[in-house]
Design a protein that fits this description.
The structure holds two protein chains of two kinds. Chain A is of the alpha+beta class. Chain A is built from 22 helices and 22 strands. Chain A is elongated. Chain B has one domain: P-loop containing nucleotide triphosphate hydrolases (Rossmann fold), CATH 3.40.50. Helix content of chain B is about 30%, strand content about 30%. In chain B, helix 3 runs parallel beside helix 5, helix 4 packs across helix 5 and helix 5 runs parallel beside helix 6. In chain B, strands 6-7-8-3-9-10 form a six-stranded mixed beta sheet. Chain B has a four-stranded antiparallel beta sheet with strand order 2-1-4-5, covered by helices on one side. The longest helix of chain B has 18 residues. In chain B, about 50% of the residues are buried. Classes of the chains: A alpha+beta, B alpha/beta. The interface between A and B is large, with 36 and 39 residues.
Chain lengths: ~800, ~240
């Protein structure tokens, strides 16, 4: 009988045991250091999770979009026009590189939805009378497509249908070419053209107030007097096609028909918004995981180096009894890998779960018939490999020091730490500091790289928080600027065709209208040298009170009697400065060219804004004063009456309700920011805790003897703790300004990344954001410090002093 | 005869090591008098360090009474222990326990900063003959020098009692003598009571009394009629 079976306290049985003694040591080391191991694993888990989320979501979105585009033949070149005969089809078809085209009727219409006081806006799009469209095909969710023999049948987009609880058979009213008609839903569809469906004046989709519906061409042509004509082209091109050449050819053909200019997908709103989302995900994948990988590598390095110092004699002993350097090195590498494995498992699980969450969030904003969320193994493999590699890199130096340590040296105590003559003197110079403070500072300077990296690690937590929180500031500032300083109207009515200024009186006379300001919007191509941009010049009346133009300091300015007021974005795109002459190509005036001076540069966050005084624009376009729409402020008490009146006003093609938009925008953005902020706060807390807690634990381990010595000399627990706390506080304090700077730079890059012709986010970081970011990190640091402080309180004074350092 | 500065009666200390009880002290009686140098001798594990730790307020007796002047240490709270160490006791250890990040001068100043009536660090370092090494860090000092800094640090607060645990244990005979000279000088000039633990029988020659420990008890107390000067001692 073996001793272990006769005696329960016998030595562990080795023969036949699958676990080697070194592995048992490994397991016990991990259990002993569980808190530190967990702290590092969590940091690593964040890296893995963010890779899985960001790259996963990026792939998911990208693949879904590509699949949807390909299967439903989304067009690549688009153009609007006033009206052109259908026989142009041959000429357009003959353009080299095209693989399909649709000549469509696309019209904005007002809707009168049951149970909704305010009018909704929709885009009516024609589909072929028979067969499927060649481009921009429809995905039919339920029901069938409308038939040309049955006027009044429509297919509606899914999100709009869902918002109004519509199903095949439901009916609603629309004001089509001035006449109210009853439309009946036959099918519910999705289209690659409106994955992100943004209504007029809206900054986020509101499926309740904006939808798209499809009617057979013959029916729509009948309603809008467009028999044998079209006003919209969508072309799908071959993969190798020269898009620019096709756009130019389309422009040449459509020029006499009021072509508004062909553009590619980049200027297609739904596509551009998706692009923005993809850019954001790519930025997230590029910035955040490396932060975590770096911090976890540093933490692994820190605890492994310390462990090796503590186990120096054991390492020497193992070498002395015949373990090879490789075996011992591998033992510590395994410790690193176990930490990585824990991190990878947690990260993969969390990433999977949160990735699904993000996909669900996408489903709320983007209309896809399907979402590809592939749990591709390679993604997890890449995330795991990168994390394990980062951990091993962090461990490399420490492990190398083991491998190269001769056993005889290992058995000796390490040479005493040499301190630099930092803050030395005869005492008079230092009388301001206590010896405890000097101890703390010298220790900091003794390991400058470690102190620096600890500071950097902590500052990254601050920076992440600033980056997450600044969007509150920027969005609040943007809302305030756009909705309260610039576009202060409650609603904007747009006419289907330009009206005489008398239309202003009819609008002003409507019930509940407190103030009405007309505007004219003229589509132009603005040239400067070889640079050009398609955009709309909007007119502003003098002393405007609703839609005001803001200068770069965001103060309202009155439009000068002549000349262009360019938004900063347009000015920089076209390299135009005040005093320069820009060439304005009037698209609807047979592309007539006029030279106009730039008189001011103004601020605008949405679109490519260019303004002129109303009279000046009328002079420029010629043909007498016309208005494209009216901006109104409304008496909220009479909203209902006004809505009823608008629904009966034939000229009004669409309505933008800024008040509702504002509300909707705030809700949506608020919700998104809350989600984002919670995620980032969790990430920052994990980093801060991982760094501060581990750093405090290692300091304690290195200085336990010193601190116990202080207790013996009669220093109180708080005095002794203060040595560690001063060091920790210094690091955390230095990390704050560094974190603010890094956070400021991160935020700035986010703002730059978002900059597009569609919208810009103002770069605003309030002081309170810096304060809040710091507060969170300070709270985490304090908790970490308190946990470590409890350990200082329980230092065993006698035991520590009896041992050699 | 002076009244005792320390008096221990029936001091017992039991450590629990897992399921085993270890008796470190088994009812020790001992009085220390003002200005006296007492040497505690004995094999390792005989209880001398345990007694020293209890007298110094680093550890608590399981049973018995330990009085410092008119105060009963056995009733002290943690806070009172800290105060007691700060105000009355100077420690010297075998492994010096200097703070590596502070210079010699600063190591001494560490203690003078929190004492009510300290000497100047320079003065304390001068007493141990290290005035010209004040700006050096521990890593730049020899073992004997480090131990003398530790002694300077212990005396700088003008403690009533100094407790030394193997003060020469890590030193060679020549440097050990320098350390003993420093201790002896302090005892003479400041009338500081000293309890010195040592394995080294040579040191007993400088003591007033020698206590020999065995198995947690005091086996023998010898009074030294002919005290030697440290310079005459060697081992």
């Amino acid at each position: 009988m073996s001793p272990s079976t006769t005696n329960g306290h016998g030595p562990p049985k080795l023969a036949g045991s699958a676990v080697s003694v070194l592995d048992r040591k490994l397991l016990r080391d991990i259990l002993r250091m569980w808190a530190q191991v967990l702290a590092i694993s969590l940091v690593m888990a964040c890296g893995v999770a963010t890779i899985v989320i960001a790259v996963g979501a990026y792939r998911s979105l990208e693949q879904t979009r590509t699949a949807f585009y390909d299967r439903y033949r989304f067009a690549t070149v688009f153009s609007g026009l006033t009206r052109a005969p259908l026989h142009l089809r041959e000429r357009i078809t003959s353009i080299a590189g095209g693989s399909g085209l649709e000549l469509r009727i696309v019209k904005p219409v007002l809707l009168d939805m049951p149970g909704m006081a305010e009018p909704a806006t929709a885009i009516a799009v024609s589909i072929p009378d028979r067969g499927e469209p060649t481009v921009n095909r429809l995905y039919l969710r339920i029901g069938r497509l409308p038939e040309s023999g049955r006027p009044g049948e429509v297919a509606v987009t899914e999100r709009f249908a869902t918002a109004h609880r519509m199903a095949p058979g439901s009916t609603f009213h629309a004001i089509l070419n001035g006449r109210k008609r009853t439309l009946s839903v036959t099918g519910i569809v999705l289209t690659p053209e409106y994955i992100y469906a943004l209504g007029p004046g809206d900054m986020v989709p509101d499926p309740r107030r904006f939808g798209v519906f499809f009617m057979p061409r013959a029916v729509l042509a009948g309603i809008f007097d467009m028999d044998g004509a079209f006003n919209d082209v969508a072309i799908r091109t071959q993969r190798s096609a020269d898009i620019q050449a096709i756009e130019d050819a389309v422009d040449r053909i459509l020029k006499p028909f009021g072509g508004t200019g062909a553009h590619g997908r980049a200027d297609q709103i739904s596509h551009a918004f998706l692009d923005n989302e993809l850019i954001q995900l790519r930025a997230m994948a590029a910035v955040i995981p490396p932060v975590f990988l770096f911090v976890s590598a540093f933490l692994v390095n820190m605890i492994l180096s310390r462990l090796i110092v503590l186990e120096r004699e054991q390492i020497g002993l193992m070498k002395a009894v015949g373990y090879g350097s490789g075996a011992i090195g591998w033992h510590y590498a395994k410790l690193t890998l176990v930490i990585a494995l824990i991190g990878i498992s947690i990260g993969a699980g969390a990433g999977n779960w949160l990735g699904h969450g993000l996909t669900t969030l996408y489903a709320r904003f983007f209309s896809f018939p399907f979402l590809i969320f592939q749990q591709s193994l390679d993604l997890y493999a890449i995330a795991a490999a990168t994390s394990a590699l980062a951990a091993l890199l962090g461990a490399a130096r420490a492990i190398w020091s083991i491998v190269t340590l001769p056993p005889a040296v290992a058995m000796q105590p390490p040479a005493p730490a040499r301190y630099r003559a930092f803050l030395t003197g005869d005492g008079r110079l230092l009388s301001a500091f206590s010896q405890l403070t000097i101890m703390a500072f010298r220790h900091l300077v003794r390991w400058p790289v470690r102190s620096l990296l600890t500071t950097l690690g902590t500052s990254l937590a601050v920076a992440l928080l600033v980056t997450a929180l600044f969007s509150f500031d920027s969005i609040a500032f943007m809302v305030d600027t756009v909705f309260f300083r610039a576009e202060r109207q409650d609603a904007t009515l747009s006419f289907g065709v330009e009206q005489s200024p008398r239309a202003l009186q009819s609008v002003a006379a409507m019930p509940g209208v407190l103030r009405a300001e007309p505007f004219r919007a003229t589509a132009v191509i603005l040239h400067h040298g070889y640079r050009e941009r398609r955009l709309v010049i909007s007119s502003v009346p003098q002393r405007a009170d609703l839609a005001r133009v803001l200068d770069l300091d965001l103060d309202p300015i009155d439009p000068p009697s002549a000349g262009l007021m360019l938004s900063e974005r347009v000015a920089s795109l076209l390299h135009l400065r005040i005093g320069d002459l820009a060439e304005v190509e009037l698209i609807e005036k047979a592309h007539q060219m006029v030279r106009v001076p730039v008189t001011s540069i103004v601020q605008s966050y949405v679109g490519l804004a260019v303004y002129m005084r109303a009279e000046a624009l009328d002079r420029l376009v010629g043909g007498g004063p016309r208005i494209s729409g009216v901006r109104v402020s409304i008496d909220p008490a009479r909203l209902g009456d006004l809505y009823t009146a608008i629904k009966q006003m034939p000229a009004v093609a669409s309505i933008a309700l800024q008040g509702v938009s504002r509300q909707r925008f705030r809700e949506t953005i608020g919700e998104n920011i809350t989600i984002m902020t919670s995620v980032y706060t969790a990430l920052a807390v994990i980093i801060a805790f991982g760094v501060v807690y581990n750093s405090a634990r290692i300091q304690l381990s290195e200085r336990a003897r010193e601190l116990a010595g202080l207790r013996v000399l009669g220093f109180t627990r708080s005095e002794v703790s203060s040595v560690l706390l001063i060091e920790l506080t210094t690091i955390v304090a230095l990390a704050q300004p560094l974190g603010w700077i890094l956070g400021y730079l991160f935020s700035w890059s986010v703002v730059r990344g978002f900059e597009s012709d569609l919208f810009r986010i103002p770069f605003v970081v309030n002081r309170s954001t810096f304060a809040l970011a710091s507060l969170v990190v300070l709270a985490v640091a304090t908790i970490s410090a308190l946990i470590v402080r409890r350990r200082i309180d329980s230092l065993d004074l006698v035991r520590v002093l009896k041992t050699r350092d | 005869m002076h009244s005792p500065i320390f008096s221990a009666h029936g001091v017992t200390k039991v450590y629990r090591a897992g399921e085993v009880e270890v008796f470190a002290l088994r009812g020790v009686d001992l009085d220390l008098y003002e200005g006296e140098i007492a040497v505690l001798l004995g094999p390792s594990g005989s209880g001398k360090s345990t007694l020293l730790n209890i007298m110094g307020g680093l550890d608590r007796a399981t049973a018995g009474e330990v009085r410092f002047r008119d105060q009963d240490l056995t009733t002290f709270s943690e806070r009172q222990f800290t105060r007691f160490r700060r105000d009355h006791v100077g420690f010297v250890f075998q492994f010096y326990n200097l703070i590596p990040s502070l210079t010699a001068w600063e190591n001494v100043a560490l203690v003078t900063e929190i004492s009510s009536n300290p000497m100047k660090p320079d003065e304390a370092l001068e007493m141990v003959g290290l005035k010209d090494r004040m700006a050096h860090f521990p890593a730049q000092l020899s073992g004997g020098e480090q131990q003398r800094v530790a002694i300077a640090r212990a005396i700088a607060k003008r403690p009533e009692v100094m407790l030394c645990d193997e003060p020469t244990g890590a030193l060679d005979s020549k440097t050990g003598v320098l350390v003993l000279e420093a201790l002896s000088r302090i005892n003479e000039e400041m009338k500081t009571t000293m309890a010195i633990i040592t394995h080294n029988a040579g040191i007993r020659q400088i003591a007033h009394r020698v206590f020999t420990f065995k198995d947690g008890r005091i086996a023998d107390v010898a009074v030294n009629d002919q005290r030697a000067r440290p310079a005459e001692v060697s081992w």
